[in-house]
Every structure is written in structure tokens, then in C-alpha cells.
Amino acid sequence: MAFSTTAHETMQDISKNPVSTEMTPTSDLDFELPATWTEHKEKILLGPYDYLVSYPGKDIRKQLIAAFNIWLSVPAPVLSTISSVVAQLHTASLLVDDVEDNSILRRGVPVAHSIFGVAQTINTANYVYFLALQELAKLENTACLSIYTEELLNLHRGQGMELHWRDSLTCPTKEDYLEMVSNKTGGLFRLAVKLMQTLSPSCDADYVPLVNTIGLIFQIRDDYINLQSSQYQSAKGFCEDLTEGKFSFPIIHSIRSDPENMQLINILKQRTELEEVKKYAVEYMEKRTGSFEYTRGVLRELDQRARKMVQEHGGNEMLMGILDMMKVPEER
After folding, report:
1. Name one GO molecular function term (predicted).
2. What is the pLDDT of residues 264-279, one digit of tens each?
3. pLDDT band, very low/low/confident/very high, at 59 (cuts 50, 70, 90)
4. Separation between Cα atoms, residue 255 and residue 11, nearest integer Å
5. Is the pLDDT of residue 25 over 90?
6. 239, 281 Cβ separation under 8 angstroms
7. Which pLDDT value is given to residue 35?
């Protein structure tokens, strides 16, 4: 059977131009076609990515890059590449996260895979990982490629453990949780700073411990506001972590504070969407195990550590402003 080479022919077009029966099975095929990848095809492939980008978040990663560059003085063109790579990886990882978490909303709108489908969304996310790598490779620095590989491995290790805990209903220790956060959330923060340190003309300090601390603050704060913030709930849904069955920081503390009480872990098992059940779980964590107060205390301690490290590096008003922004209210 022979095939037409026209990309968008309809059946009517084909009937007007039948293939000669005298041709050999492959005589109408050009096996040495020029590259035909077009802007239109690229747009199709990037559909889920472009959709999510059109609803921007707070872009704290870009702010952190700008803040650390006060110390590192990376040239503007190189810094632009680093910012672009990190932004692409972050958005691609969100596309995958929403599929794996069976999320409904992201930034207040339907998740990409509910519009484009799961298969296309996953393919797009994977494609963007390689677009980012391609862009980074243009800097022609092998150390940067090693950093990229290391932190992408860390990101998937962290995500993999979080999924394992959720799907096996295994409550991790706080230490395991902190390792997961360092791998998953801290990975892209660390990627940016490591790339900047590598490409800086004047790097005389290691800022990785500081950025690791900021990564912990960011994720624990995110876990906290998921269960406490009405603004967050309007963007992602009411107490979404409970519906996902996610072992977040306050939930881990609550379960391990009273391991004989199986109510909370069974609520996670149900993946409930019932608001009254989720309100009960939040009240249990707040009044029975004091998990939100404990979480606020941990965030205060991490904030103090981060501020001390900033001062030890000579001070940085922009970073201090970011830490101010990440503070949570002392009481609900």
C-alpha cells in the first residue's frame, strides 16, 4: 500500500489524486526529506506548557536568582539563560505533579491535563525538560550539565518518595520528609544557585546551605497554607493535600504525635472531597495535636537560621525581603 506525502490532505483530496497502481510500494516516498519541524508543530507540542505559563505564579525562583546575583554578579545574558532554564523546569514539573496528584486546579484554573489530556501533558513536560537542557548546553560548560543532571535526579527522587508514601499509606519520619523536600523542592532552587556559582566571575562563598534552608521554608510554608489559607484554597481547592492523601509536614507531625489515633491517616486513605470531613481533620490537627503551632515554630526557627546566614554572607536586602514575604501569621 502506498501513502500520500501531503501532510494535511483530506480524503476528498486523495480521491482526486489517486496513487498510480503502476508505482512500486515505496516509489512515492521520499526517504531523504528535509527537516519539516515547524513553528505550528512546536506550538501544538507546547500547548499544555503554554497554557500553564499564561497563568503565572509569583515566580519566587526568579526573585531568588536576582537576589543571589547581588553577591554573584553573573553577566546578564548568562543569568537570563539560567532564569529561563529554571522557569522551564519548574513549569514542566508542575504539569507532571498535577497529573500524579490528580489535581483539579492550578493557579485558580483547571489543570493542563484536564484540557489537553494526560498523555499529551506528560509528553510536553518531558519535551520541555530537554528544551531546557538544550538551552543550557549553549553555555558550553560541562559542569553546568553535570549540575543539571544531578538536580533533575534529585527532583525525581524526591517526587518518587512522596508518591510512594501516599500510595502505600506510609507516614514518613520528619527526617525522611526533610530529605524529600531537599530533593524535590530544594532541587530547582539549588540548581539555580549552583549554576550561578559555577558561572560567576567572582564567587568566593558557598551559598548552597542557605538556599537549602530557603527551600525547606518554602515547602513547609506551602504545606501549612494548603491547610490554613483561604487564598490558597481558592487557587488549588479546599485543603487539597487531604484529598490527595499527601503526607505534608503538619499531617506527619499530627499522625506521629498520636500514633494510636488512626482517624487522620484513615481520612488520608479515603482521599475525601467532603468539606466537613476535611474541616474535622484540620480541627483535629489544630486542637488535638497542635500541629499548626508546631509548624509555625519550625518556620520561625528556619527563618532565623536563614537570616543569620544572609548576614554572615554580608547582608542582602532583597533576600531579606523574600524571607519577609514567606513569613506566615503567628495565629490562624
Report:
1. metal ion binding
2. 999 999 999 999 999 9
3. confident
4. 62
5. no
6. yes
7. 73
Checking 228-235 for CB contacts under 8 A at 24+ apart, the result is: 228/282, 228/292, 228/328, 228/332, 234/108, 235/105, 235/106, 235/107, 235/108
pTM given for the model = 0.86
What pLDDT was estimated at residue 31? 67
**Residue-averaged pLDDT of the chain:** 90
Question: What is the rounded average pLDDT of the residues 193-206?
Answer: 95
Q: Hey, CA dihedral for 151, 152, 155, 156, is it positive or negative?
A: negative
Tell me the three cell numbers of residue 133: 537542557
> Roughly what angle, to the nearest 10 degrees, separates helices 208-228 and 60-72?
160
Give Cα separations from 23 to 1, 18, 26 (angstroms): 10, 11, 8
The answer to whether 227 touches 282, Cβ cutoff 8 Å, is yes
> C-alpha cell of 216?
525547606
| Residue 148 neighbours by CB under 8 Å, 6+ apart | 85, 132, 133, 136, 191, 195
According to the 3-state scheme, what is the secondary structure of 8-44?
CCCHHHHHHCCCCCCCCCCCCCCCCCCCCCCHHHHHH
Alpha-carbon gap, residue 164 to 181, rounded angstroms = 14
**Residues 247 and 257: beta-carbon distance below 8 Å:** no
CA atoms of 214 and 204, how far apart (whole Å)? 20
Phi-psi region of 38 (alpha: psi -120 to 50; beta: other; left: phi over 0): beta
Domains of the chain: 45-325 (1.10.600.10)
Q: What share of the chain is helix, strand, coil (3-state, %, to 5)?
A: 70, 0, 30
